[in-house]
């Protein structure tokens, strides 16, 4: 056989083998989570995982925006994990028992939780509890005070928001409080955030000149553990930032830090805010509070700028709050940065 013919034969065989291999290989769908790799910035080298699973306040839109700001403006690697309908692959916060990607917490540096009444299977709940006890930092937003709701016969029942031991479940044990009701009138009285006297120089409030949001102030009983209130929620008489305070309602904490000691004896830095209505995130002051908190939780408070860049990344126009009010038909692909 001539040399030219041998080359043609070899190429032909190679193409056939490649085609057979591709045909035999299983089709691989895109991962049902999104990672923003981040660029240069103080956060480079740190990986934060954001869990979005609340069915009222549009965490499915707030969490990716927070992650994008942290990645694009500050260099953190950020992964967002959503509640996913296993039948359609769509983001559906009403699905309370399926959040693929939670295993990524195993190698993460920080966890940011925005959950409500989840009852995840063991393979998805265990990474959350393992992280909880790891000594690594955590941050909880709004409904995360009542993140879990398991039946009494579940091995995870003690983490439910109405648990008696530990009292208040995961929310009170880890974040400092469980669900205690609406204090401001829901959808009628908004929140003005006021820095606690004596905490004006805390690194988390650095540059937070104006904190306001349409969320109502959540009720508080007493904060559990070593908690330090940073922001008090002033109940306003209406849904406009120019509305005056409701003088019949005293201010109560809406953001605080906590030193949390898990079952293994490791101590974590924790930041909690009961604000977190997706439209709160249109407030530059609230966005800065959250970004500063990421730095502080990771022990990077010396890197917090005098006024951190918290410009929105891309379009941010979340759906109105409300049960089953999420934007239908969205998948994690819709949140990938092009």
Could you characterize the architecture of this molecule?
This protein is an alpha/beta fold. The chain contains 5 helices and 10 strands. A 10-stranded mixed β-sheet has the order 1-3-2-4-5-10-9-8-6-7.
What is the strand and helix layout of this fold?
Elements: H1 3-24, E1 33-36, E2 47-53, H2 59-74, E3 77-82, E4 110-115, H3 122-132, E5 138-141, H4 169-175, E6 191-195, E7 211-213, E8 226-235, E9 252-261, E10 267-273, H5 284-297
Parallel strand pairs: 2-3, 2-4, 4-5, 5-10
Antiparallel strand pairs: 1-3, 6-7, 6-8, 8-9, 9-10
Overall pLDDT score: 92
- Class from helix and strand fractions: alpha/beta
Give the distance, in angstroms, between the N- and C-terminal Cα atoms: 51 Å
The CATH architecture designation of the domain at 30-182 and 256-335 is 3-Layer(aba) Sandwich
Beta-strand level of the residues, as a percent range?
Answer: 15-25%
Helix content: 10-25%
Coarse shape: globular
Radius of gyration: 23 Å
Topology as a string of helices (H) and strands (E): HEEHEEHEHEEEEEH
Number of strands: 10
- Uncertain spans: 7-28
What is the third-level CATH name, the topology of the domain at 30-182 and 256-335? Rossmann fold
User: Which CATH top level class of the domain at 30-182 and 256-335 fits?
Assistant: Alpha Beta
Main sheet attributes: strand count, strand direction, barrel closure: 10 strands, mixed
In order across it, which strands form the biggest sheet? 1-3-2-4-5-10-9-8-6-7
Provide a count of the helices. Answer: 5
């Amino acid at each position: 056989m001539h040399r030219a013919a041998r080359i043609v034969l070899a190429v032909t065989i190679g193409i056939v083998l490649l085609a057979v291999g591709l045909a035999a290989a299983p089709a691989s769908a895109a991962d049902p989570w999104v990672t923003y790799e981040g660029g240069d910035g103080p956060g480079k080298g740190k990986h934060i995982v954001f869990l979005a699973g609340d069915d009222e306040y549009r965490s499915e839109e707030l969490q990716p925006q927070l992650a994008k700001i942290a990645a694009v403006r500050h260099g953190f690697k950020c992964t967002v994990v959503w509640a996913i309908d296993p039948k359609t692959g769509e983001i559906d916060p009403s699905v309370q028992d399926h959040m693929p990607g939670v295993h990524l917490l195993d190698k993460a540096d920080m966890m940011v939780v925005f959950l409500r009444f989840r009852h995840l299977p063991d393979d998805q709940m265990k990474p959350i509890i393992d992280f909880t006890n790891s000594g690594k930092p955590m941050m909880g937003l709004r409904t995360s005070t009542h993140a879990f709701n398991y039946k009494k016969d579940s091995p995870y029942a003690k983490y439910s928001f109405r648990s008696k031991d530990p009292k208040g479940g995961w929310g009170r044990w880890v974040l400092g409080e469980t669900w205690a009701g609406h204090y401001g009138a829901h959808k009628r009285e908004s929140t003005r955030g006021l820095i606690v006297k004596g905490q004006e120089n805390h690194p988390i409030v650095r540059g937070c000149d104006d904190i306001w949001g349409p969320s109502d102030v959540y009720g508080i009983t007493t904060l559990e553990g070593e908690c330090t209130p940073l922001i008090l929620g002033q109940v306003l008489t209406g849904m406009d930032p120019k509305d005056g305070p409701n003088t019949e309602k005293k201010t109560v904490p809406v953001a605080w830090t906590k030193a949390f000691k898990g079952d293994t004896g490791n101590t974590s830095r924790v930041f909690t805010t009961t604000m977190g209505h997706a439209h709160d995130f249109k407030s530059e002051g609230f966005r800065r509070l959250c970004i500063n908190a990421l730095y502080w939780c990771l022990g990077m408070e010396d890197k917090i700028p005098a006024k951190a860049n918290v410009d929105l990344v891309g379009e941010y126009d979340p759906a109105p709050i409300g049960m089953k009010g999420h934007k239908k038909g969205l998948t994690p692909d819709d949140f990938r940065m092009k």
